Amino acid sequence: MKITDVKTFLMEGGRRQWLFVKIETDEGIHGWGEGTLERHEKAVEAAVHAVAIRIEGRDPTQVERLWQSMYRHGFWKGGPVIGSAISALDQALWDITGKVYNQPVYKLLGGQVRDRVRAYTHAQDLTGARELVDEGFSAFKTGGWVVGTNEVNEKEIPAALREKIKAMRDEVGPDVEIMIDNHGRSRPYVAIRQIEAIDDLGVSFFEEPVPPENLDSLQLVRNANIKTELATGERLYFRWGYKELLERRLVDVIQPDVCHAGGISELRRIASAAETEHILVAPHNPNGPVACAASVQLCAAIPNFKILETARDMPWHDTVQKNPLKIIDGFYELPTEPGLGIDLDEDVIAQRPYSEEGAHSSYVPSVNAFDGAPEDV
User: What is the pTM of this model?
Assistant: First the structure.
Protein backbone atom coordinates (compact mmCIF):
# COMPACT_ATOMS: atom_id res chain seq x y z
CA MET A 1 0.00 0.00 0.00
CA LYS A 2 1.20 3.50 -0.89
CA ILE A 3 0.02 7.03 -0.25
CA THR A 4 -1.22 8.49 -3.53
CA ASP A 5 -2.66 11.86 -2.52
CA VAL A 6 -3.12 14.26 0.38
CA LYS A 7 -6.16 16.54 0.15
CA THR A 8 -7.22 19.41 2.38
CA PHE A 9 -10.73 20.70 3.09
CA LEU A 10 -11.64 23.95 4.82
CA MET A 11 -15.14 24.10 6.34
CA GLU A 12 -17.11 26.73 8.21
CA GLY A 13 -18.18 24.79 11.28
CA GLY A 14 -20.03 27.45 13.24
CA ARG A 15 -18.01 29.62 15.64
CA ARG A 16 -14.82 28.50 13.90
CA GLN A 17 -13.32 27.16 10.69
CA TRP A 18 -12.20 23.53 10.48
CA LEU A 19 -9.29 22.15 8.47
CA PHE A 20 -9.61 18.50 7.49
CA VAL A 21 -6.93 16.38 5.82
CA LYS A 22 -7.64 13.27 3.77
CA ILE A 23 -4.89 10.81 2.86
CA GLU A 24 -5.72 8.50 -0.04
CA THR A 25 -3.97 5.25 -0.98
CA ASP A 26 -3.59 3.04 -4.03
CA GLU A 27 -5.79 0.39 -2.39
CA GLY A 28 -8.78 2.66 -1.94
CA ILE A 29 -8.44 3.06 1.84
CA HIS A 30 -8.45 6.63 3.06
CA GLY A 31 -7.83 8.29 6.40
CA TRP A 32 -9.01 11.57 7.95
CA GLY A 33 -7.09 14.01 10.11
CA GLU A 34 -7.68 17.51 11.43
CA GLY A 35 -5.37 20.49 11.85
CA THR A 36 -7.79 23.21 12.89
CA LEU A 37 -5.90 26.22 14.28
CA GLU A 38 -8.13 29.20 15.06
CA ARG A 39 -7.52 32.13 12.70
CA HIS A 40 -4.56 30.36 11.08
CA GLU A 41 -6.24 27.56 9.11
CA LYS A 42 -4.83 28.61 5.74
CA ALA A 43 -1.29 28.69 7.11
CA VAL A 44 -1.73 25.13 8.37
CA GLU A 45 -3.25 24.07 5.05
CA ALA A 46 -0.12 25.27 3.24
CA ALA A 47 2.08 23.53 5.81
CA VAL A 48 0.17 20.24 5.35
CA HIS A 49 1.06 20.17 1.66
CA ALA A 50 4.67 21.11 2.38
CA VAL A 51 5.03 18.33 4.96
CA ALA A 52 3.06 15.79 2.88
CA ILE A 53 5.84 15.72 0.30
CA ARG A 54 7.92 13.76 2.82
CA ILE A 55 5.40 10.89 3.00
CA GLU A 56 3.84 10.66 -0.46
CA GLY A 57 4.40 7.31 -2.16
CA ARG A 58 5.21 5.60 1.12
CA ASP A 59 3.46 2.94 3.22
CA PRO A 60 0.90 4.72 5.46
CA THR A 61 0.96 1.94 8.06
CA GLN A 62 4.56 2.77 8.96
CA VAL A 63 3.18 5.48 11.22
CA GLU A 64 6.20 5.99 13.46
CA ARG A 65 8.68 6.00 10.59
CA LEU A 66 6.61 8.58 8.71
CA TRP A 67 6.16 10.69 11.84
CA GLN A 68 9.92 10.86 12.26
CA SER A 69 10.34 11.85 8.62
CA MET A 70 7.71 14.58 8.91
CA TYR A 71 9.27 15.97 12.06
CA ARG A 72 12.99 15.61 11.31
CA HIS A 73 13.28 16.15 7.56
CA GLY A 74 11.93 19.68 7.43
CA PHE A 75 14.81 21.26 9.42
CA TRP A 76 12.40 23.78 11.06
CA LYS A 77 10.76 22.12 14.05
CA GLY A 78 8.00 22.93 16.49
CA GLY A 79 5.41 25.65 16.67
CA PRO A 80 1.64 25.66 16.15
CA VAL A 81 1.56 25.70 12.33
CA ILE A 82 4.00 22.87 11.64
CA GLY A 83 2.72 21.07 14.72
CA SER A 84 -0.85 21.23 13.45
CA ALA A 85 0.15 20.01 9.99
CA ILE A 86 2.03 16.99 11.37
CA SER A 87 -0.79 16.32 13.81
CA ALA A 88 -3.41 16.17 11.06
CA LEU A 89 -1.33 13.85 8.91
CA ASP A 90 -0.52 11.61 11.87
CA GLN A 91 -4.22 11.22 12.72
CA ALA A 92 -4.97 10.25 9.14
CA LEU A 93 -2.16 7.68 9.11
CA TRP A 94 -3.56 6.07 12.25
CA ASP A 95 -7.04 6.08 10.69
CA ILE A 96 -5.73 4.20 7.65
CA THR A 97 -3.70 1.77 9.76
CA GLY A 98 -6.71 0.90 11.88
CA LYS A 99 -8.74 0.23 8.76
CA VAL A 100 -5.99 -1.96 7.30
CA TYR A 101 -5.92 -4.13 10.44
CA ASN A 102 -9.69 -3.80 11.01
CA GLN A 103 -9.24 -2.45 14.54
CA PRO A 104 -10.02 0.81 16.35
CA VAL A 105 -6.89 2.88 16.89
CA TYR A 106 -7.00 2.36 20.66
CA LYS A 107 -6.55 -1.38 20.06
CA LEU A 108 -3.34 -0.64 18.15
CA LEU A 109 -2.17 1.56 21.04
CA GLY A 110 -2.25 -1.40 23.41
CA GLY A 111 -5.97 -1.66 24.01
CA GLN A 112 -8.38 0.23 26.18
CA VAL A 113 -7.67 0.93 29.83
CA ARG A 114 -11.20 2.28 30.40
CA ASP A 115 -14.65 1.44 29.08
CA ARG A 116 -15.76 5.00 28.28
CA VAL A 117 -14.24 8.47 28.10
CA ARG A 118 -15.48 11.15 30.46
CA ALA A 119 -16.00 14.56 28.87
CA TYR A 120 -16.72 18.13 29.87
CA THR A 121 -17.85 21.15 27.91
CA HIS A 122 -18.29 24.87 28.47
CA ALA A 123 -20.69 27.10 30.38
CA GLN A 124 -20.40 30.84 30.71
CA ASP A 125 -23.41 31.50 32.94
CA LEU A 126 -25.84 29.84 35.35
CA THR A 127 -28.29 28.86 32.63
CA GLY A 128 -25.57 27.13 30.63
CA ALA A 129 -24.27 25.32 33.69
CA ARG A 130 -27.71 24.01 34.63
CA GLU A 131 -28.43 22.90 31.07
CA LEU A 132 -25.20 20.87 30.93
CA VAL A 133 -25.92 19.16 34.22
CA ASP A 134 -29.43 18.36 33.03
CA GLU A 135 -27.89 16.81 29.88
CA GLY A 136 -25.86 14.47 32.09
CA PHE A 137 -22.49 16.20 32.21
CA SER A 138 -20.79 16.00 35.61
CA ALA A 139 -18.17 18.63 34.76
CA PHE A 140 -17.89 21.91 32.89
CA LYS A 141 -15.41 24.72 32.34
CA THR A 142 -15.90 28.47 32.43
CA GLY A 143 -13.79 31.55 31.81
CA GLY A 144 -11.54 33.20 34.39
CA TRP A 145 -11.99 36.80 33.26
CA VAL A 146 -15.50 37.99 34.04
CA VAL A 147 -16.21 41.18 32.15
CA GLY A 148 -19.15 42.85 30.53
CA THR A 149 -17.19 44.26 27.59
CA ASN A 150 -13.87 43.61 25.88
CA GLU A 151 -12.30 46.49 27.83
CA VAL A 152 -11.13 45.11 31.16
CA ASN A 153 -9.63 46.30 34.42
CA GLU A 154 -7.62 43.53 36.07
CA LYS A 155 -8.31 44.86 39.56
CA GLU A 156 -11.98 43.91 39.16
CA ILE A 157 -11.32 40.34 38.07
CA PRO A 158 -10.80 38.37 41.34
CA ALA A 159 -13.97 39.56 43.05
CA ALA A 160 -16.06 39.15 39.90
CA LEU A 161 -14.69 35.64 39.42
CA ARG A 162 -15.59 34.62 42.94
CA GLU A 163 -19.11 35.92 42.51
CA LYS A 164 -19.52 33.96 39.29
CA ILE A 165 -18.07 30.66 40.56
CA LYS A 166 -19.95 30.89 43.88
CA ALA A 167 -23.23 31.29 41.99
CA MET A 168 -22.40 28.33 39.76
CA ARG A 169 -21.44 26.16 42.72
CA ASP A 170 -24.69 27.02 44.47
CA GLU A 171 -26.62 26.20 41.29
CA VAL A 172 -25.08 22.80 40.45
CA GLY A 173 -24.17 21.55 43.91
CA PRO A 174 -20.95 20.13 45.39
CA ASP A 175 -20.56 17.04 43.19
CA VAL A 176 -20.27 18.67 39.75
CA GLU A 177 -16.71 19.53 38.75
CA ILE A 178 -16.06 23.15 37.80
CA MET A 179 -12.88 24.11 35.94
CA ILE A 180 -11.65 27.60 35.09
CA ASP A 181 -9.82 28.59 31.90
CA ASN A 182 -7.82 31.80 32.30
CA HIS A 183 -6.42 31.69 28.73
CA GLY A 184 -3.02 32.85 30.00
CA ARG A 185 -4.31 36.40 30.38
CA SER A 186 -3.01 37.30 33.85
CA ARG A 187 0.23 38.46 35.38
CA PRO A 188 1.35 36.13 38.19
CA TYR A 189 0.12 38.49 40.91
CA VAL A 190 -3.35 38.74 39.35
CA ALA A 191 -3.55 34.98 38.74
CA ILE A 192 -2.72 34.30 42.38
CA ARG A 193 -5.42 36.72 43.52
CA GLN A 194 -7.91 35.02 41.18
CA ILE A 195 -7.14 31.57 42.57
CA GLU A 196 -7.22 32.82 46.15
CA ALA A 197 -10.68 34.22 45.47
CA ILE A 198 -12.09 30.81 44.49
CA ASP A 199 -9.79 28.51 46.47
CA ASP A 200 -12.54 27.38 48.84
CA LEU A 201 -15.12 26.62 46.13
CA GLY A 202 -13.85 23.20 45.05
CA VAL A 203 -12.62 24.13 41.57
CA SER A 204 -11.00 21.12 39.90
CA PHE A 205 -8.26 23.05 38.13
CA PHE A 206 -7.27 26.57 37.09
CA GLU A 207 -6.05 26.51 33.50
CA GLU A 208 -3.34 28.71 31.97
CA PRO A 209 -3.07 31.11 34.92
CA VAL A 210 -0.30 33.03 33.11
CA PRO A 211 0.96 33.19 29.50
CA PRO A 212 2.55 29.87 28.52
CA GLU A 213 5.85 31.23 27.21
CA ASN A 214 7.39 31.93 30.64
CA LEU A 215 7.65 29.00 33.03
CA ASP A 216 9.20 31.16 35.74
CA SER A 217 5.96 33.14 35.88
CA LEU A 218 4.09 29.87 36.30
CA GLN A 219 6.52 28.94 39.07
CA LEU A 220 5.47 32.05 41.00
CA VAL A 221 1.85 30.88 40.90
CA ARG A 222 2.90 27.34 41.81
CA ASN A 223 4.75 28.61 44.87
CA ALA A 224 1.75 30.57 46.17
CA ASN A 225 -0.23 29.29 49.13
CA ILE A 226 -3.15 27.90 47.13
CA LYS A 227 -5.03 24.57 47.10
CA THR A 228 -6.54 24.59 43.60
CA GLU A 229 -4.71 22.41 41.07
CA LEU A 230 -3.08 24.06 38.07
CA ALA A 231 -3.30 23.05 34.40
CA THR A 232 -1.67 24.18 31.16
CA GLY A 233 -0.44 22.85 27.84
CA GLU A 234 -2.77 23.68 24.96
CA ARG A 235 -0.11 26.01 23.52
CA LEU A 236 2.87 23.69 23.95
CA TYR A 237 4.07 21.58 21.05
CA PHE A 238 5.72 18.16 20.90
CA ARG A 239 7.35 16.44 23.88
CA TRP A 240 10.23 18.90 23.94
CA GLY A 241 7.79 21.70 24.69
CA TYR A 242 6.64 19.78 27.78
CA LYS A 243 10.02 18.61 29.05
CA GLU A 244 10.81 21.40 31.52
CA LEU A 245 7.18 21.85 32.57
CA LEU A 246 7.00 18.20 33.59
CA GLU A 247 10.43 18.02 35.19
CA ARG A 248 9.65 21.04 37.37
CA ARG A 249 6.16 19.72 38.16
CA LEU A 250 4.69 23.15 37.63
CA VAL A 251 1.14 21.87 37.08
CA ASP A 252 -1.04 18.97 38.16
CA VAL A 253 -2.76 18.51 34.80
CA ILE A 254 -1.44 18.93 31.26
CA GLN A 255 -3.62 19.67 28.24
CA PRO A 256 -1.92 18.72 24.97
CA ASP A 257 -4.03 19.10 21.82
CA VAL A 258 -4.11 16.27 19.28
CA CYS A 259 -4.50 18.96 16.58
CA HIS A 260 -1.34 20.85 17.48
CA ALA A 261 1.14 18.92 19.62
CA GLY A 262 2.10 16.17 17.17
CA GLY A 263 -0.98 13.99 16.75
CA ILE A 264 -1.89 10.71 18.37
CA SER A 265 1.68 9.42 18.20
CA GLU A 266 3.16 12.34 20.09
CA LEU A 267 0.37 12.81 22.62
CA ARG A 268 0.85 9.22 23.70
CA ARG A 269 4.53 9.93 24.38
CA ILE A 270 3.73 13.17 26.22
CA ALA A 271 1.20 11.32 28.37
CA SER A 272 3.80 8.66 29.22
CA ALA A 273 6.29 11.33 30.29
CA ALA A 274 3.63 12.97 32.45
CA GLU A 275 2.79 9.63 34.05
CA THR A 276 6.32 9.37 35.46
CA GLU A 277 5.70 12.63 37.33
CA HIS A 278 2.20 11.59 38.48
CA ILE A 279 0.65 14.32 36.33
CA LEU A 280 -2.77 13.78 34.74
CA VAL A 281 -3.75 14.44 31.12
CA ALA A 282 -6.91 16.34 30.16
CA PRO A 283 -6.55 16.90 26.40
CA HIS A 284 -7.47 20.27 24.96
CA ASN A 285 -10.19 19.59 22.39
CA PRO A 286 -12.54 22.43 21.39
CA ASN A 287 -12.02 21.52 17.73
CA GLY A 288 -13.91 19.65 15.04
CA PRO A 289 -15.13 16.06 14.78
CA VAL A 290 -11.95 14.37 13.56
CA ALA A 291 -9.85 15.85 16.37
CA CYS A 292 -12.52 14.73 18.81
CA ALA A 293 -12.50 11.18 17.42
CA ALA A 294 -8.69 11.06 17.57
CA SER A 295 -8.77 12.34 21.16
CA VAL A 296 -11.29 9.69 22.22
CA GLN A 297 -9.08 6.94 20.75
CA LEU A 298 -6.07 8.28 22.66
CA CYS A 299 -7.92 8.80 25.94
CA ALA A 300 -9.18 5.23 25.86
CA ALA A 301 -5.60 3.95 25.92
CA ILE A 302 -3.63 6.18 28.32
CA PRO A 303 -3.66 5.34 32.05
CA ASN A 304 -3.24 8.88 33.41
CA PHE A 305 -6.24 10.36 31.61
CA LYS A 306 -8.43 12.74 33.63
CA ILE A 307 -11.17 14.18 31.39
CA LEU A 308 -11.64 15.27 27.75
CA GLU A 309 -12.76 18.69 26.61
CA THR A 310 -15.48 18.71 23.95
CA ALA A 311 -17.36 21.45 22.11
CA ARG A 312 -21.13 21.00 22.07
CA ASP A 313 -22.19 24.37 20.64
CA MET A 314 -21.31 23.73 16.98
CA PRO A 315 -24.30 22.17 15.16
CA TRP A 316 -22.27 20.97 12.17
CA HIS A 317 -19.99 18.91 14.43
CA ASP A 318 -22.29 15.88 14.13
CA THR A 319 -23.87 16.74 10.77
CA VAL A 320 -20.59 16.44 8.85
CA GLN A 321 -20.00 12.95 10.25
CA LYS A 322 -21.54 9.95 8.50
CA ASN A 323 -21.54 8.04 11.79
CA PRO A 324 -21.23 10.55 14.68
CA LEU A 325 -19.53 9.63 17.91
CA LYS A 326 -21.97 8.91 20.71
CA ILE A 327 -21.87 10.81 23.98
CA ILE A 328 -24.22 9.63 26.73
CA ASP A 329 -24.52 11.28 30.15
CA GLY A 330 -21.24 13.10 29.66
CA PHE A 331 -19.24 10.06 28.51
CA TYR A 332 -18.09 9.13 25.00
CA GLU A 333 -18.74 5.52 24.15
CA LEU A 334 -15.70 3.79 22.68
CA PRO A 335 -16.22 3.27 18.95
CA THR A 336 -15.85 -0.27 17.65
CA GLU A 337 -15.39 0.65 13.98
CA PRO A 338 -11.84 0.39 12.57
CA GLY A 339 -9.55 3.40 12.51
CA LEU A 340 -10.77 6.58 14.18
CA GLY A 341 -14.32 5.27 14.02
CA ILE A 342 -15.80 8.09 11.93
CA ASP A 343 -16.03 9.21 8.32
CA LEU A 344 -16.81 12.66 6.91
CA ASP A 345 -19.43 13.60 4.32
CA GLU A 346 -17.66 15.62 1.63
CA ASP A 347 -20.98 16.91 0.29
CA VAL A 348 -21.69 18.51 3.67
CA ILE A 349 -18.19 20.00 3.72
CA ALA A 350 -18.84 21.55 0.31
CA GLN A 351 -22.05 23.14 1.61
CA ARG A 352 -20.11 25.05 4.27
CA PRO A 353 -17.21 26.81 2.51
CA TYR A 354 -14.48 28.56 4.43
CA SER A 355 -15.47 32.04 5.60
CA GLU A 356 -12.72 34.66 5.66
CA GLU A 357 -14.91 36.93 7.75
CA GLY A 358 -15.76 34.13 10.15
CA ALA A 359 -12.11 33.16 10.50
CA HIS A 360 -11.27 36.60 11.87
CA SER A 361 -14.36 37.39 13.90
CA SER A 362 -15.42 34.22 15.68
CA TYR A 363 -14.31 32.40 18.81
CA VAL A 364 -11.23 34.39 19.92
CA PRO A 365 -12.14 38.06 20.43
CA SER A 366 -9.82 41.01 20.45
CA VAL A 367 -9.39 42.25 24.01
CA ASN A 368 -8.08 45.58 25.25
CA ALA A 369 -7.38 47.04 28.67
CA PHE A 370 -9.62 49.81 29.95
CA ASP A 371 -7.15 52.35 28.51
CA GLY A 372 -7.23 50.74 25.06
CA ALA A 373 -3.90 48.85 25.22
CA PRO A 374 -4.01 45.40 23.54
CA GLU A 375 -4.26 42.50 25.98
CA ASP A 376 -3.71 38.75 25.61
CA VAL A 377 -6.80 36.90 24.41
Answer: 0.94
3-state secondary structure of 361: helix
- CA-CA distances (angstroms) from residue 30 to 79, 84, 85, 97, 157? 27, 19, 17, 10, 49
The yes-or-no answer on residue 183 being catalytic is yes
First-residue to last-residue Cα distance in the chain: 45
pLDDT, one tens digit per residue, over 328-346 is: 999 999 999 999 999 999 9
284 included as an active-site residue:
yes
DSSP states of 172-210: H-SSSEEEEE-TT-S-HHHHHHHHHHHTTTTEEEEE--S
Euclidean distance between CA atoms 143 and 122, whole angstroms: 9
Catalytic hit among 30, 122, 183, 260: 183
Task: Determine the average pLDDT of the residues in 213-227.
Answer: 97
pLDDT per residue over 41-90, tens digit each? 999 999 999 999 999 999 999 999 999 999 999 999 999 999 999 999 99
Q: Which of the following is catalytic: 30, 122, 260, 284?
A: 284
Pair 194, 218: CB distance under 8 Å: no
Report DSSP state, residue 335. P
Spatial separation of the C-alpha atoms in residues 306 and 364, rounded to whole Å: 26
Contacts of 85 (CB under 8 A, 6+ apart): 35, 44, 47, 48, 50, 51
Q: Enumerate domains of the chain plus CATH numbers.
A: 3-102 (3.30.390.10), 106-340 (3.20.20.120)
Q: How far apart are CA 203 and CA 217, in angstroms?
A: 21
> What does the pLDDT read at residue 151?
61
Distance CA 85, CA 309 (A): 21
